[in-house]
Write a sequence for this structure.
């Protein structure tokens, strides 16, 4: 493998192009700067989402009204969901680490369409502002939940249109990123980088890009139909006019279940990079991991109905969706077995990214297994719309995507910023966050099993103990989050300079300087027969 | 990519395809005046499908693209078809 050494070229953080200062960032078509733009935007929105989540948990500290009334609680969980789903975890790892690393990992100077890439970020920002407009102006904050279920979404008096249009625009951003990545992976791989040598993070970005491209338009059209219902009363989802509200649920989940895989696949990809690096060992079952990625992407597209088991669907459809839900668990399990097998007899280097990756496996396992409870038809009816679902979902999406995101930021931080973080504080942040996470969400499994419904600001006295524990967990989690953020922000500015390859990684990003120069490589690298991303 | 051959399609071919699309659009409007019963939607969809085929083949150059690009397009339509079938597992058996 040709390593590049272009220390003299200005790195992407310092490079001065046509514009200076902030304009030099928001008009930059450099994939690395766009990745960071996403990082800062998403971190901002994530912080807002965390504050809303914190407020919800505080409300649930005691039965009855604690800090907000029922309507405010409905608006809070709606906005929390819309922000966290559409602005944080759906763009998630692809928007930040995909943008930053994909071209470098495949030996390219940028993505295939750099201007389209910048447009994606601008669309993201436009979508964010539209949703924020729905909160701040008009007749009231949306209160439908992030799923915008019909018929309530076109009957509620709250300010739905900007929120729905914002989600629509955010979808466009996602589609353009997916398209860009597909073309980049197909067309810009460096010489010698065959499909069978692609890093697994790239493979997961590839699978994700297909889902983004095929599933997102469906939700776009569905949201347009909601807008048409509100504006013109077309009646497609309105039973009073011969419409079918369950059709809305089909259309919504045709996107929104694959969206879960948009969230989790790149997270799995990041974990598949981190575990071999910190085990200093070739990934176990490289081809099985690729096959499972593509199987999850494909089968995951066809299981949406398991969100609708109690909605009045036909029994035939319920059997089908339940069966496929169990099948999609198989490739996920294959991944877990492969990660653990990679560690076996490896030379494990206990660093912060590895702690995050290992805890990812732990929480993802619990989240995945509780998903099987929900996928079983009879059990689903018992726990449907209870706190159990909230626990399962947060174990998968926050515990999965969130933990993988933190793993990834700690893994690639020295490459992105050219500085190393304080490892002791990073480890402290991880353990506090991890304890907070378990304390916050684990009681919800119990509360759900005992029958506590989700999406209520009030509950029966018998659920008080579990809710107190959960609320305390939210405080611990936020403490961990603050430690992590302060450490990373401080280290990005004044941390010690990082080496080119501090973890002894084998993928191409570790062959360029930290931080990378503007166009990554002075010469496009060329891979030999024996080169590969995990050849330790 | 500079090392790839580009097939140049004469303008008249595009004009013929455009005329074909206009004609099919008019036909798809006309067919709504005929009562086909339960096949009304199917009739309109047949015209739409032929039009899509023409656009994909000629305007989007699938006719001259590499097989893997054609395969991708077929895959997308297959996913679409499967999605419709799965949705109707609910509607037909409700």
């Amino acid at each position: 493998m040709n390593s590049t050494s272009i220390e003299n070229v200005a790195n992407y953080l310092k490079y001065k192009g046509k514009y200076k200062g902030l304009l030099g960032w928001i008009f930059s078509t450099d994939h690395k700067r766009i990745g960071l733009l996403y990082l800062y935007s998403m971190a901002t929105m994530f912080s807002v989402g965390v504050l809303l989540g914190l407020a919800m948990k505080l409300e649930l500290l005691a039965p009855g009204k604690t800090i907000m009334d029922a309507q405010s609680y409905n608006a809070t969980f709606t906005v929390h969901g819309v922000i966290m789903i559409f602005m944080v975890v759906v763009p998630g790892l692809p928007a930040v680490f995909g943008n930053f690393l994909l071209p470098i990992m495949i030996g390219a100077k940028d993505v295939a369409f750099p201007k389209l890439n910048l447009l994606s970020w601008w669309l993201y920002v436009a979508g964010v502002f539209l949703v924020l407009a729905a909160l701040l102006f008009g007749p009231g904050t949306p209160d439908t939940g992030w799923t915008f279920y019909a018929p309530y979404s076109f009957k509620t008096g709250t300010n739905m249109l900007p929120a729905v249009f914002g989600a629509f625009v955010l979808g466009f951003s996602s589609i353009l990123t997916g398209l860009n990545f597909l073309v980049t992976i197909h067309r810009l791989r460096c010489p010698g980088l065959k499909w069978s040598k692609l890093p697994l993070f790239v493979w997961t970005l590839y699978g994700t890009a297909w889902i983004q491209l095929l599933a997102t338009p469906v939700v776009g059209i569905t949201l347009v139909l909601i807008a048409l219902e509100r504006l013109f009363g077309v009646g497609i989802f309105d039973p009073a006019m011969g419409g079918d509200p369950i059709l809305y649920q089909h259309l919504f989940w045709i996107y929104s279940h694959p969206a879960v895989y948009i969230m989790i696949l790149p997270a799995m990809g990041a974990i598949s990079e981190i575990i071999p690096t910190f085990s200093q060992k070739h990934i176990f079952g490289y081809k099985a991991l690729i096959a499972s990625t593509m199987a999850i992407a494909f089968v995951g597209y066809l299981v949406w109905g398991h969100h609708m088991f109690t909605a009045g669907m036909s029994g035939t459809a319920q059997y089908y969706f339940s069966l496929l839900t169990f099948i999609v668990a198989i490739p996920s399990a294959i991944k877990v077995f492969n990660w653990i097998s990679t560690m076996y007899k490896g030379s494990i280097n206990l660093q912060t990214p590895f702690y995050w990756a290992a805890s990812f496996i732990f929480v993802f396992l619990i989240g995945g297994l509780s998903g099987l409870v929900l996928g079983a038809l009879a059990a689903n009816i018992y726990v449907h719309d209870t706190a159990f679902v909230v626990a399962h979902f947060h174990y998968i999406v926050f515990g999965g995507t969130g933990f993988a995101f933190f793993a990834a930021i700690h893994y690639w931080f020295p490459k992105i910023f050219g500085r190393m973080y304080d490892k002791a504080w990073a480890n402290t942040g991880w353990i506090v966050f991890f304890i907070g996470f378990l304390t916050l969400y684990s009681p919800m499994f119990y509360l759900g099993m005992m029958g506590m419904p989700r999406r209520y600001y009030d509950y029966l006295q018998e659920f008080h103990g579990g809710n107190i524990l959960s609320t305390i967990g939210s405080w611990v989690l936020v403490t961990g989050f603050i430690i992590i953020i302060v450490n990373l922000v401080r280290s990005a500015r004044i941390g010690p300079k990082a080496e080119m390859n501090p973890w002894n990684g084998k993928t191409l990003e570790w062959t360029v300087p930290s931080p990378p120069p503007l166009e990554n490589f002075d010469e496009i690298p060329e891979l030999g027969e024996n080169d590969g991303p995990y050849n330790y | 990519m500079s090392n790839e051959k580009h097939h140049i399609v004469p303008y008249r071919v595009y004009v013929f395809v455009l005329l074909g699309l206009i004609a099919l659009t008019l036909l798809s409007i006309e067919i709504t005046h005929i009562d086909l019963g339960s096949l009304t939607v199917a009739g309109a969809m047949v015209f739409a499908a032929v039009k899509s085929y023409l656009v994909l083949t000629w305007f989007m150059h699938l006719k001259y693209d590499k097989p893997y690009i054609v395969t991708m397009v077929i895959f997308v339509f297959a996913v679409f078809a499967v999605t419709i079938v799965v949705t109707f597992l609910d509607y037909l058996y409700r």
Notes: Chain A touches chain B at residues 187, 214, 246, 250, 254, 301-302, 305, 312-317, 320 (CB under 8 Å). The mean pLDDT of chain A is 94.
